[in-house]
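dumping the sequnces here before i forget
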Amino acid sequence: MITSHNGPQPADFTDVRATNLAVVLRFVRENAPCSRADIAASTGLNKATVSSLVADLIDRRLLRETGLTENRVGRPATMLVLDGSPYAAIGVEVNVDYITAVAVDLKGEELLNWRRAFPGSTASPGEAVTAVAAIAKRVVSRMTRESRQVLGLTVAVPGLIDGDGAVHVAPNLGWHDVDLRGDLVKALRDPAYPVLVDNDANLAAVAEYRFGPHGDVSDLVYVTGEVGVGAGVVMDGRLRRGGHGYSGEIGHIEVDPSGPDCRCGRRGCLEAVAGIGAILARTAPGVSPIELEHEVDEVVRRARKDDPEILALLDSVGRGLGKGVAIAANLLNPEVVVLGGYYVPLGPWLIAPAEEEMLRRSLAPGGGGCELVVSTLAHRAAALGAAARVLDSVDSGRLPARP
Amino acid sequence: MITSHNGPQPADFTDVRATNLAVVLRFVRENAPCSRADIAASTGLNKATVSSLVADLIDRRLLRETGLTENRVGRPATMLVLDGSPYAAIGVEVNVDYITAVAVDLKGEELLNWRRAFPGSTASPGEAVTAVAAIAKRVVSRMTRESRQVLGLTVAVPGLIDGDGAVHVAPNLGWHDVDLRGDLVKALRDPAYPVLVDNDANLAAVAEYRFGPHGDVSDLVYVTGEVGVGAGVVMDGRLRRGGHGYSGEIGHIEVDPSGPDCRCGRRGCLEAVAGIGAILARTAPGVSPIELEHEVDEVVRRARKDDPEILALLDSVGRGLGKGVAIAANLLNPEVVVLGGYYVPLGPWLIAPAEEEMLRRSLAPGGGGCELVVSTLAHRAAALGAAARVLDSVDSGRLPARP
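..and the predicted 3d for all of it:
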């Protein structure tokens, strides 16, 4: 007996109104400006229902009417757009050498973008919680001063995160079994908004998919270029987390059995061969995490001057990176692999050798159509993805109370 | 501006009735026996609509009423089940050493299962088309004699297949740019039923996901253990083909830079290190493809007698296989990796070393919960998946005409 998992799905009608509010909200997100008649025609909801749903969403200040009218025969229709001026979604990323915070409105427009140096590799989890809570509180009070209600906070962490927001292991932060979500909720004194914790690469992939310049792409892999190397996997237009949420650990796949030791305890991992650490171990051995950004700038400066030692080093790291990209290309056949973090400033020297290696190692001719590019979001990707995850909850029907 | 791709989706209302017929058909597939009232309650369709849709499906002999009634208060309800007795879906697999054909009814019950030796590695594409057409014709006439209408034919091939059913490259068959679908349609003289061509590993993964004993698993990787090694990737309950349909080429990921040459022209690929060829190159060098099955039996016989040379060989191949499984586990975090084909009889000696290697190489503790098992479908997997793909079309709303 076949159990079919494909084909059309009827909606779950347990909460029809919440579902339909979300359907209308999403339709306007994707098609604004649009009229009530457009919504009815495209969703199959009847016009009276659409009017009632739209009234509710206007009431919640999630939609608003514009002065615009549709240019067509017959009675002119009032056009709708997303409002969301009274709302903000917050994303924070904590990493080995920095904390980033962003806030976006309901439309995804960036309201704020802060980056602070942070000694993630030496700070204790408790110190990290204090630092994240401090920056989150400052963002929340800024948003409150702007009369915005905070829809939620998501924190991005480079590690394996379980479904409850606990960090199972974060090798480069040195964390094991830290209840980050629980500790943050305490530090923020049980805030009214929901708090989530998620993997940095997963969130960055979501941000890249939504905010990046990739057009109709529905299969994308994002590779973080921080001290740690991880991937976020988008297939068929959705983040694919795997069975237990641990997908994307490309950084700890062996790409060179005789390669250097990795912080995870193995050897020749992609992260050890082609992470930022593999470059700085040669140019600035023993560098403090807090100096990372400065040292990467120094590498860029020397590469620009055609320093032969640096060019050879970047070529070799690019080839190592290409081995990892080839693994993703063979197994996942993405349309684009996006390199993030410190790979962005180093891209001009890494992309060509990485691409050559990827093409050589792909069974499908031309890498199966896989393009290799650097992120246009740079270090904001994970935090932006974290904020987008808050918007996802809203789009899925968890609407804020009327303001 | 965020374009949201998550959350609830309104149905496409361009062909509401076809969509709703498919929704009802799938509901009965998953919940039979069930009543019209059950369908209405769960799908949100109103009772009059459900009655009309059910009447149509009974008319097409896709559903039938049973004598059963629901045991409940009030008027007894007539129960519905899938009918499909007048239908058959056909799947054929062509591989290096055999052709397999299966037929299933609408419920997925196997009606027929044939396996024939076939010299795939030496036969020309034209000879393969003739052989596939011949077996397909014999299956079709058998089904016709049983008064079944053929819903479609899907052919599984170990290679990169494009969306039109042309084989881009099939390394172990020695094929390049063969218009297999076009040639087959000609050889079958424009049959009334649709003909599709798809990758063997993808189809086997679908079969394993549907027919295999994996319960609630929604993330599964199937690894073919034929002369070629390929994977089919199921994530979140659907086959994930990647951007151009070339996902799952795990067999040509380098797992040992100093490993043996691969048929694809590279070196140290998983297929070269841990494919069946890597075993037979040692036990039966120069074996003809047509003798493969016999030679694998011979390896099993010697392993059962604790032949130390064979045990060492299988341990080493198992470790190589584990490297590939670890790559899938790190990148995709499947709940189960299913080994198919000749890995099934060799499983008792391959699983333990492969699992040990996989656990050692996974960043997530315990391999991220990934279980390593052999297929219970053995060599039928790809052909069964091919037949299931025909049923998918029906479930997606491409219903057969009234018989």
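The CA atoms of residues 21 and 56 of chain B lie 8 Å apart.
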